[in-house]
Amino acid sequence: MTARVGVVTGASRGIGLEISRQLAQSGVNVVLTARDAQRGKKAAATLQRLGLNVLFHPLDVTDPQQIRALADYLSQTHRRCDVLVNNAGILIDQRGAGVLALQMDTLRATLETNFYAPLQISQALVPLMRRHGYGRVVNVSSGLAQLQGMGDGTPAYRASKAALNALTLMLAAATKGSGILVNAMCPGWVRTDMGGVNATRSVEQGAETAVWLATLPDDGPSGGFFRDRTPIAW
Ligand code: NAP
Description:
The protein has helices spanning 14-25, 37-48, 64-78, 104-132, 155-174, 203-214; strands at residues 5-8, 29-34, 54-58, 83-86, 135-140, 180-185, 225-227, 230-231. The protein is 43% helix and 15% strand. It is built from 6 helices and 8 strands. NADP nicotinamide-adenine-dinucleotide phosphate is lined by residues 9-10, 12-16, 34-36, 39, 59-62, 87-90, 113, 140, 142, 186-187, 189-190, 192-195, 199.
């Protein structure tokens, strides 16, 4: 069988880099994407030195032209896209600023990366999945998006990930019965630039459920929200 091809966004560091490593280790040919070509190439080279099948391709997730170029590259060079992990994300809420102090510029920029981008990338790549009747889309979300227990801190981030969760359900509905499974996950609080040094989890732990969802068997779930391979409340 031809090897599966999987795209990971925002993969030059943090959870995205570790998802790329674990996904490649599972036998998927990984297209590691990042907006900074130098850092992306360096990250891909690190994984290649481990003997893993990883290629770099540039992608600023907020640039529609680059999204189209990625879809063309996958279509022409690999003739397929089997896995998409929408991992790139930003948390730019001002420290301590709750929803009543939320600046519209902050909200717009956050939605651009955390919501519009996964939507546009899915619109570009799901058609490639449909060609072979197989696909796995994983949206890296956050427990901060949960409507149950919704709080007031980091409002732009919470709103963007809640929208990403809604998108997960819409995509699952749109692809029902097509062999494409779409799920969202929360990595937990992970020691990365975003999570900080005091976070409770390693990147290995943070990436694990995303990779499980990216390699689900055909009878696996679609339209779910998971942490540690276990469904959690929306
Ligand atoms: P991180 O260390 O801050 O890394 C974020 C990654 O996203 C970087 O590779 C960054 O690239 C990339 N990125 C941001 N904007 C981008 C853009 N426009 N185009 C392409 N790439 C872009 O964060 P992380 O902790 O690994 O987070 C990964 C995902 O997990 C995010 O979606 C985050 O919301 C989610 N998450 C994290 C935690 C946690 O505790 N860490 C908890 C819950 C959810 P650059 O290097 O170019 O900036």
